[in-house]
Each structure stands twice: as C-alpha cells, then as structure tokens.
Amino acid sequence: MAVETLLPSAAPVRFVAEDGSRADHHGGYGEPAGARLKDAYRLMVLGRRFDVQATALTKQGRLAVYPSSAGQEACQVAAALALGERDWLFPTYRDSVALVARGLKPGEVLTLLRGDAHCGYNPVETRVAPQCTPLATQTLHAAGLAHAMQRRGEDAVAVALIGDGATSEGDFHEALNFAAVFKAPVVFFVQNNRFAISVPFEKQSAAAALAYKGIGYGMRSEQVDGNDAVAVLAVLDDAVKHARDGKGPVLVEAHTYRIDAHTNADDATRYRDAEEVAKWREADPLKRLETHLKNENLLQDSEIERFAADAEVFAQSVRDTLNAEPELDPLSLFDHVYAEPTRQLQRQRAALEAELEA
Amino acid sequence: MAVETLLPSAAPVRFVAEDGSRADHHGGYGEPAGARLKDAYRLMVLGRRFDVQATALTKQGRLAVYPSSAGQEACQVAAALALGERDWLFPTYRDSVALVARGLKPGEVLTLLRGDAHCGYNPVETRVAPQCTPLATQTLHAAGLAHAMQRRGEDAVAVALIGDGATSEGDFHEALNFAAVFKAPVVFFVQNNRFAISVPFEKQSAAAALAYKGIGYGMRSEQVDGNDAVAVLAVLDDAVKHARDGKGPVLVEAHTYRIDAHTNADDATRYRDAEEVAKWREADPLKRLETHLKNENLLQDSEIERFAADAEVFAQSVRDTLNAEPELDPLSLFDHVYAEPTRQLQRQRAALEAELEA
Amino acid sequence: MTTTMAQALNAALRDALKDDDRVLVFGEDVGTLGGVFRVTDGITADFGEDRCFDTPLAESGIVGFAVGMAMGGFRPVVEMQFDAFAYPAFEQITSHVAKLRNRTRGALELPMVIRIPYAGGIGGVEHHCDSSEAYYTHTPGLRVVTPGTAQDAYDLLRDAIESPDPVVFLEPKCRYWSSEEVSFTRSGAAMDRAVVRRHGKDVTLIAYGPMVATALETAEAAKDEGWDVEVVDLRSLSPFDDETVTASVRRTGRAVVVHEAAGFGGYGAEVVARVTEQCFHQLHAPVLRVTGLDVPYPAPKLERHMLPDVDRILDTIARLQWADTPVVAGA
Amino acid sequence: MTTTMAQALNAALRDALKDDDRVLVFGEDVGTLGGVFRVTDGITADFGEDRCFDTPLAESGIVGFAVGMAMGGFRPVVEMQFDAFAYPAFEQITSHVAKLRNRTRGALELPMVIRIPYAGGIGGVEHHCDSSEAYYTHTPGLRVVTPGTAQDAYDLLRDAIESPDPVVFLEPKCRYWSSEEVSFTRSGAAMDRAVVRRHGKDVTLIAYGPMVATALETAEAAKDEGWDVEVVDLRSLSPFDDETVTASVRRTGRAVVVHEAAGFGGYGAEVVARVTEQCFHQLHAPVLRVTGLDVPYPAPKLERHMLPDVDRILDTIARLQWADTPVVAGA
Ligand SMILES: Cc1ncc(C[n+]2csc(CCOP(=O)(O)OP(=O)(O)O)c2C)c(N)n1
Ligand SMILES: Cc1ncc(C[n+]2csc(CCOP(=O)(O)OP(=O)(O)O)c2C)c(N)n1
Ligand SMILES: [Mg+2]
Ligand SMILES: [Mg+2]
C-alpha cells in the first residue's frame, strides 16, 4: 500500500534557514526560479507596507477592525503567486496581503474591514471569493468550485486559505473529504500561525502537525516552513500543479507565527510572552528572503530601494482611499437580497425612503 | 518523532482466518482468554437469534423499523464485552445486538424501533446512552462524558460506536479532536460495514482505511478484521485499557459487512450484487469463531446446543414482549419537556385531556 | 395522468435536467438507490452519474459543496434526507446560501434548491419528523416553498430550480404517496403566490404542505356544522402572499392557521400577526392557530396526538366567536 | 455597586462557580483571555484552568462535548463567541440539548447554559450581529432568556445556571458596556417572568434584550406626544409570561412589540399572535411590530438604518388608530 506516500515530510520543508543561508530539507521539491522569488520579495515588501499602513489607519478609526498579516507575508504572497489568472482564491479575514498580492486595489481589499460593505471586489472578475469570517466554511466552497471547474474541463485550481484554529471545525473535515472523494483540484493551505485568537496550537490539536490529517482522507499532504518564502512557493507550486494535473487535492500546512495581536481590538499580552513574539520576529520571512536573494545575487540594492519606494506610493494610495468617505446609499440595503426585491422589501424600501426624506 | 506509532497496522489485525484456522497478523496484541471467547460466542449466538427474530417481527408489523446487525455480531458483542460495568456505551440505531450483549432486555432494546418511546432503558442505570440517529452526534457526547468521568477520578471509559458513513460528518472530526486534546478516556469504534444505506465505502472516503484518520489528531489508531471476534476483542480490550490508563483516546476501525439491507424498509438489490453479499456470508463471524473455538477445544457440542437453546428462549421473550401492546399515555407527551411543565404546556395538557375524555 | 407526489417530483427533476444541463442532483443515496423516498428513482440510470450522484454523508458538506458548484455556474438541487438532518447544514444555509448574493452585491447569485422531506405522519422515529419551516422562513435571502398537491410538487419544483434565488423546498413526506391527476406542463400560479383551494364565505383556513389535505377535509366536515370554509394553500411560505390571504380574510372575517410544527414561535405566528394587522377591522374574532404541541416530536405511537386533525380544527373554528356576530342572512 | 453588564455577568459566573463545584465554564478564548468581550475576565486566574478553560475551535464540538459533560454530572456554561457562530452547533442544540430529557423520559437531565452574545449596534462586520432568538424560541425543550439590564444579567445568569433545564442565554452585545447600579444578591423576578419596567396607561411597549433601553427612551420621548407608555421587558422569551403581558395590554388596549431581528417570522410575531388572541376585545388597534428589516444584517456603516430606534417606534405608536378611540377622560 502506498498510503505512507501521502504523509508529509517528517520535518517542514525548508530551503532557506532563519539566517538566510541555504537549508537543505527540500523534501524533493524543485527551487522556484529567481524571477519568481524576486517577485515574491517585491510583493512581500508591498504587503508588509500595506499591513503596517492598515494597522496605523485602524488606530485612527479608519477601519472597523483589522486582522494583521504581519509575519505571514511569505504564506500569503506565495498563495497568490502560485495561482494563475483563471484560478480561484478563497481567503479569510486575515488574508488581506494575499489579496494585495493577487492585484486587488486597497479600497477593494479593505471595504469589508472598513465597514462599508460585505465585500469590496467582484469575486467573479477577480476570481477571489469574499473574505470569509464563518471559519472553515469557505473550504467547502473551494472544493465545490474546484469540482465545478473540473466538470467543465477548465484546468483551473482553487486554493483555500485557513487558519490552524479553523481546522478544528467540522466543515474543514467535510471539505477535505469531499475534495478527496471527488478528486477536486483544490489545495487546502493551512497557515498555522500558532494561535486562534488567544488559544495556542497545543490546545487546538494534539497532532504533531496538522498536515498529518491528509492521510486520513487519502490526500497528499505536506508541511513547510511558513517563514521561508522559497519553500512555501516551492511546495504550493507543486501542490497546485498536482491538483491541476487531475491528481487530486493537496493539504499543505505552513508553520508560521502571528506577530501582531489577533486584531487591533485584541490584547495579545494577556495570553503570550513578549519573548516568544521577539523570537519569532527574528524569523522574519521578509528579511530571510532578502538575505537569501542577496546571497544568491538575485536582488540588487537599487531594486530593494525601488520596491520600498513603490510600497510607499502604494501606502499613500491606501491612505487616500481610506481618508475619502464613500457615499453609501441606505436604500441599497434592499438590493441583492433576492434577484428582484419581494413586495415586502419594496414596502420596507419605500418606508425607509420616506424616513430619509422626512 | 513517534508520530508513525499512531498509525494502524498496515493490514487489519487478524487472529482467525475465514476458515477458522489461525491467522497470524496479531499486530502485537495478546489473545483474549478462552472463557471470554466462549462468552463472546454465546452472546453472538444470542444476538444473531435476536436479530433474526426482530427482523421476522418487523415483517409482521411489530416494529416500525429495524436496522439489522447481521454480519456485525463480532463487532457489537466485542464492544459490549470490552466494557466494565461502570463504563459507558454510545450506540447507534444499528447496535441492538450490542445492547443485548450488554444485558438489556428485549423490550428495553426495541422500544425505540417499535415506536413506543424514544428510548426504552434508563441510560444512567445501564450506562448506555440512547441509541442515536442523528449520525456522529453521539461521538461528542461520548468524548464529553469520558472527560467528565476522568475529571471525577472515575477510571471508567466510554466506547462510541459509529458507522463508516457517519465518519464523514463534521461532528466525528470534532469529537476525535476534543477527545485527543483533552486526552479523554474514550474509544471510537467504527464499524465499517462498507455501506451507508446505499453508498459504498469507495464513495464515502478516498482513504485506504478510516483508521488512518487517527494520526491527524495525534491519536492512536488500529484497524481490525471485524468478522474475527478474537481480533476485535483483542484490539478493543487493548484500546479500552489504553484509555483507562490515562493514555488517551483510541480510534479503532473494524472491517466488516452489512449482510442485510439497511433496514427492513430498504431494498439492497437496487445497489449491490448478490454475489458480493454471498461472498461476505461466507465470512460469517459466528461460524468463524465457532470453528476456531472447536479447533482449540474451547467449545463442546453440548455447549453449542445449550447456547442455541438459550437463544430460543430469548427469542420467545422477544416475541412475547413485542406481541404485548403496552399502554401508552398520551398525556405523557408533556412530561419531561422541562423539569416542570411550563404554564403553556399545562394548558395544552389540559386541552388534550379534555379531548381524550370527549 | 394519475401520479403520486413523489413521482411528480421525479418528473420535475427529470424535466429540469433535460432542459438545462447546468442542473445537477446530488445528496445522500439519491443516485443508484433513487433516494430513501424514491424521489430520484431511475434518474442516475437515465441521466448518468454525471448529473445525479451520491455524496459522502455530511449535510454541511453537501450544502457547502453546492454553494461552490453554484459559484462555478451549476444549478445544484440537493437533498437533505430528513428534516432534522438538515440541521448540520444550518450554518451553510443561513450564513452563505441565504447571503451570498447580498454579500457580493449581486456579483454572485446562488440558484440552488435544497430539497427537504419534512414533517410527520408517517410513523418515523425521533428526528425524522421535524417541521422546520420556521427556521428557514425567518432567514432573509431564502425562498421557502412547500407543495400541498402533486401538481404543485411538479410546478413548484420546476419554478424553484429555475429561480435565480436559493429555495428551500419542503416536501411533505406524508403526501409522497397520495395519487392525483397531474399535468406535466406548468400552468399554475407563480411560485410566490398562494391559491384559494376551496371557496367559502364564513372562515378562511390557511394551510400549507401536509396540512392542505387536512384543511380541505375539514372544510367538507364543516358543512355539517353550517360553516362554509374557504381554504388557502400558501405554497410560498417566504415570501408571503399578502394579497391573496388578506383578500380572503377580509371577505370571511375569520381565519384559522394550521400547521404541524410546534405552535410557539412557529410560522403560523407570522401569519396571524400580518393578517391581523392588515384585516383588523374586518375580523370578528382573533385569528387562531391549530398547530403541533410545544413538545419534541413524539414517538410514532403517540404522534397522532401531536398533529392537527379535522376535529381540532373544527373545535377551533367553533371558538371564533360566532355568537358575537350579527347573524348573516341565510345562515 | 455600579457595574457594566459584562461585569455583572462575570460576577454571576464567579458566584455560581463558588456555590457549586459542578459548574464549569468553557468555550473559545474564555480562559486566559477572558473572552473577546471579557465576560470571563480573570476567572481562570482565580478559579483555575480546571473550572474555566479554552476548547478547540468548534461550536458543535463545544456543545456536544458539554452534553456529555452534563450527562456525567457537570453543569457546563459554554460560550458561543458570536450569534452566527452558534449555527454550527444548531444540530446539537435542537436535536440533543433541547431533547435529551425528553428522549430519556427524565432519566437524564441537561442543566447547561449556552451563552450567546447577540444582536448588533456595535459596528461588527458580517456574521457578528445576528439576532437569532427565533431559532431557539421555536425549539421545545429550550429555555431562552435575555437580560435588558445589568441587574438582570446577574440575576438571570444565576437562575439559568441553577435551572435543571438547558438555557440559551442571549447577551445583548451593545449593552455590555453600559453601567448601572447592581446588587449581587438576587432579588428579582423568577427567571420565567416578565417585568413592567415603566408604568403607563396608553400603550404597552413590549421589548427585550438590546431593545429595553430603546423602549424606555421611547417612553420618555412619547411624553411630548402626550402618550403615557408602559414598557414590559420580557426577560424570558421561552417560556413566555402571558400573565404579565396580557394584564398590561388589557389595561392599555394598545401594544407594540420591538426587536432587532428581522420581522418576518421573528419572535415578535409570536408575541403579536398570542397577545391578540388573549386581548382581542380590549385592543383598539392591531398589535404592531417594530423590527429589523427583512435583509441580511448590513455592514457597520449602514446598520443604523436596520435597527429600530425611538423615531420608528414613535411613528408606529402613532399608527395605533388613536382617532378611533373614545377620548379618555383627562387625556
Ligand atoms: C464559526 C466561527 N466561530 C468563531 C469565530 C470567531 N473567531 C474569529 S477568528 C477566530 C480565531 C481563528 O483562528 P485561526 O483559524 O487560527 O485563524 P487566524 O485568526 O489565526 O488567522 C475566532 C474564534 C468565527 N469567525 N467563526
Ligand atoms: C445527520 C444524519 N444524516 C442522515 C441520516 C440518515 N441516515 C440514517 S442511517 C444513514 C447511513 C449511515 O451509514 P453508516 O454510518 O455507515 O452506518 P450503518 O447504517 O451502515 O450502520 C443515513 C444517511 C441521519 N440519520 N443523520
Ligand atoms: Mg491561527
Ligand atoms: Mg455503514
């Protein structure tokens, strides 16, 4: 029986060590091309800047809430880069940097968290599902959508993002099982950032790693150092190819860390030590990739400067977007509840209209 | 890392081959004592007779519905035998033979399926939870109850029975995870009878075996030949001991087969071949154990006759019980909705009383 | 053509599969077996596993997977095997099925149908007989319909499958096997319209699904008491057809709502509340309800005491303060 | 002592933990963090991880595990982090929590409390603001209560924990931080009793949870219009206190029910239906409802248009057909 081939590598796949030197736990994966790595770097710089900016604007009351991606940039950027244009991404509330890397505009990304509307972009045009808050529910949508594409003969893939905590939900289990049974072209990408709000991974699961779940569904699985962008990209590229080639879904777990509190509304000092956070700050994925690319002569100082400058321009556009107060039409509440408003909604709309005119 | 020790044996544990000769895929488990095996045999004879009788009475309209245990007697009897008096059993609708083996009276076992009441026995006195129809939901109750006993320092264990189909439900996943995280003394015992009503295992899961799920929760797991009573008892004894010793929960999958249709209301010829069923009839767990015990000189013909005779007496008591029509009090509908009937229920009770008197 | 409600539903599925290749039927046991109630009988054989297939046993999975399939351009028709077994899918239904169009401001629509055999009267054991309509009707974004006749079973299911909105389609189990003349060309009222099944001038009985037949029986029996009963079959529980119902109650001045579900917080409360608001000055008596008791659904041998029947409905009609009314000429 | 509703709930949990060592508090983030709303703040520190602890992130798991714990003799108090995140537990709540006593004919009782922060008004993003009471109140076997004041938060939570029946305990999020004088000795009405929060003779406003404060504000504002408004705070949604409500409406002859949840099939419909049935001949006008709109809960910046407010309630009171009434002496 070849079941053991479904098991992940015994230790997380790693191409680059914390200090930026080469590590050689490649797990048989090929190294992504230098140009892609540079692109990943560029987007991580952009994403980091975006994240810092959004956090700052939250303090000024410009966003209702912001769950930071700090520390998870390698995962989120790799998830976006692993996708082709026709592929779908299923993000959570935490994955704003993935959306930025996918090319969405700041205003589109932040509409939900700003409180203007439930989703700021067109999922059909962007092939990005609405950021999902009911945990794990989107993994089923991803499996279903992947299966739909497979049925139509499109060779597109869906990547579902999910956190460590959300893997405890029943929907995650059902999604893995449906995907495996239907051999749907979907990659489940768990960002194990070691916390579900305040609950540490040790209280979430007794498994050595979440990637060990795959074998129970007959699904290939892998674990990877989530702060090593090279490794994450290598593993995700391979997983996406596996799915695209009709070989079935893949479960990938990235070991990473949530550097900031759960959201701006959270106080992480209540439940974890500053030292732990400090230790993980050292493992910064952006620094690591930068050192690696410089070591490999793939990145020039001038490029570093240019990317940083571009990120500043981008940050300015984030500020501009959030400082403008968009007009919201209260009567839009009645749009899109049904294809056509029911008679009851028409009456309620008329009443609100009268109220607004009074 | 010792994660691989959590994996089940590569092939199902087996002590006795289909023809009753010794098999030696013991997986390191010790052989149960002869007296226990004889007891298992006795209860399987009783259970088989009970099952046949219940099926017959269903045809006469004495039961609303009956899901037969035929073919699964080794599993159900072993599950009951593996438990001590203070241990709890969490059965499904299919597990009537387990209840019989646990010592419940026919009337108690069949109350639900006869349509008299939702549960015919006192769960607290019998330490048997009500037979559960919402699939997989009882696995969480078993985990919670096991944890409750652990907290109180009782060294009791809970065994949760579940079918192959029900393992696809989210609650099963959540139960395994809670049990593993809390190290609750519970054994999840999957009777993989290869069908969920009409859906074959191949459409239920892409896993080589359901036992491979354990490792994803950090839980010990095992697979066993479910038609080999010796093996099932050996594995369950060990699993119960593991749980009782505070070493955490265990997942056990027994490979077996549902010989009859899903229930009397089902027509299995619509979805499976007669040959397949015939093949599995050959693998009869009762015959197999009988041959084994005779080979080993653990069972005399006189005993076989005596057990058969006892089973006949038992069958008669099943008939007597089901031929008597118990008085049911319509006003009991209002009992036990709340500890005390609410004023609203008192009014509805009075109205029904008036109606019945009219 | 004489056919049962189960067969009418089967015909509706077949015609929908024929007309639109985006339609897919899936769920537990709906494939080879044809469903535990045989509603999908023979469909896999005739249309192929590609169009009608079994899934793993997980209701949240089925609904969530269907959401993804609908996002990908299909029109899934999924079956929940029994009412109470749709509860595991409750989060997917309320948080996604009902809201996806709204969440995406119309960019994604969700044309899917969730078929749920519901209610009792068939001697089913616990958890197999829930009347769960109130949970769905209170959820904006869902349409909820339930046929009371085989013809409506056909018509409404065709409409539901064609609807651009998600529809919870409640099938009254106890009517599956009732035979009736049915035409498989749609001719009925729009999906969101109630119909007057019987005209009468004294009192309006408002019913739906399994209780339509009971209401019609009651109307017959009521003749003996001298009451001329009008029967309205709601068909669409959400949205509610105020026009048809209100017109009837304004005419009769009295109304009784009947359903199997427990009364407290049941769907009937909504009917009472809105009818009362709209017909207050035409009402001779409060609108009353005949419903299931406020207890968990009983074991089969006691279920008849739970369910509204002709006698209970007649008794309730009798309580409509007839004495207070000026005697109508001829009555 | 002046305290917020969140603090009053915290005190109730502490006192219950002190009084009965079978009481356990668990759920997502309720341990070290003290809950996202700090309702369990400091409890783990003071009572130990043994009494108040975090669980894996799975609501069905939490509730199902609690059912098992209760079967094993504990009295679990579990938290669902937000209203819509209780939906994954819907099957466990409806099919087990509500029914276990009934299924076992009283052999097993299920003294557990499911705390659910609910409703809106706090600028929460989607799925964080549902008013889900109607789903629970329609389910026989559950008790459903919701405090409108900090004092009731303390009293009702103590009662709920001591109740031999399972209680769905709905905490109005928007009131968590309102300060009030509270005494931590229980002195209030029984858990299943409504209370008249303000006496008035012209119209009865029936409210609960987050809307009690709004109703009281409305009553003040109504003075300018010449209406003397009585405010009833239901406290217990199931069972319903007919006696208190009916007595009030019979006195005033007019009533308005207020809640945040969508109106259609909402809890208010039940209130209208039963009040109308019991007070029909005392009513000068139909009982009206002021509720949330029948749309998915809006994004934060639009939520104020969704929610009942003083103006909408006053407008509704104005529609109670005052002109049709004989002028009351002195009015
Ligand atoms: C079904 C559900 N339950 C609870 C919540 C509340 N909640 C929001 S985020 C969160 C923690 C999620 O942790 P994880 O999955 O690890 O993702 P992370 O936030 O770390 O990215 C919780 C409990 C929710 N959104 N959905
Ligand atoms: C939540 C839920 N969904 C659906 C059903 C209907 N149902 C009853 S038995 C069954 C098949 C169960 O198969 P399995 O778990 O393999 O157990 P077996 O009947 O084979 O013992 C189904 C779908 C149910 N009882 N509960
Ligand atoms: Mg996390
Ligand atoms: Mg099975």
Detailed description of the structure:
The complex is a heterotetramer, with two copies of chain A (358 residues) and two copies of chain C (331 residues). In chain A, α1 packs across α2. Chain A has 358 residues and is of the alpha/beta class. The model of chain A has no long low-confidence stretch (mean pLDDT 97). Chain A is built from 13 helices and nine strands. Chain A has helices at 34-59, 73-81, 96-102, 106-114, 123-126, 137-151, 170-182, 201-204, 229-244, 274-282, 285-295, 301-323, 343-357, and strands at residues 14-16, 22-25, 88-90, 158-163, 186-192, 195-196, 199-200, 220-225, 250-255. Chain C has 331 residues and is of the alpha/beta class. Chain C has two domains: 2-181, 3-Layer(aba) Sandwich (Rossmann fold), CATH 3.40.50; 195-319, Rossmann fold (3-Layer(aba) Sandwich), CATH 3.40.50.920. Chain C has helices at 5-19, 43-47, 59-71, 90-97, 100-103, 133-137, 150-162, 211-223, 242-252, 267-279, 303-306, 310-318; strands at residues 2-4, 23-27, 52-54, 75-79, 113-118, 143-145, 167-172, 179-181, 195-198, 203-207, 229-233, 236-238, 255-262, 288-292. The longest helix of chain C has 15 residues, at 5-19. The radius of gyration of chain C is 20 Å and the shape is globular. Chain A binds chain C through residues 117-119, 122-125, 129-130, 134, 137, 139-149, 151-152, 158, 170-171, 174-175, 177-178, 181, 332, 335-339, 342-344, and chain C through 50, 55-56, 58, 60-61, 63-74, 88, 91-92, 95-96, 99, 101-109, 140-141, 143, 163-165, 192, 239-240, 242-243. One thiamine diphosphate sits between chains B (94, 133-135, 163-166, 193, 195-197, 258, 262) and C (28, 57, 81, 85, 88). One magnesium ion binds at residues 163-165, 193, 195-196 of chain B. Chains C, D: Pfam families: Transket_pyr, Transketolase_C. Chains C, D: Keywords: Oxidoreductase, Pyruvate, Thiamine pyrophosphate. Chains C, D: InterPro entries: THDP-binding, Transketo_C/PFOR_II, Transketolase-like_Pyr-bd, Transketolase_C. Chains C, D: This is Pyruvate dehydrogenase E1 component subunit beta. Chains C, D: Its cofactor is thiamine diphosphate.
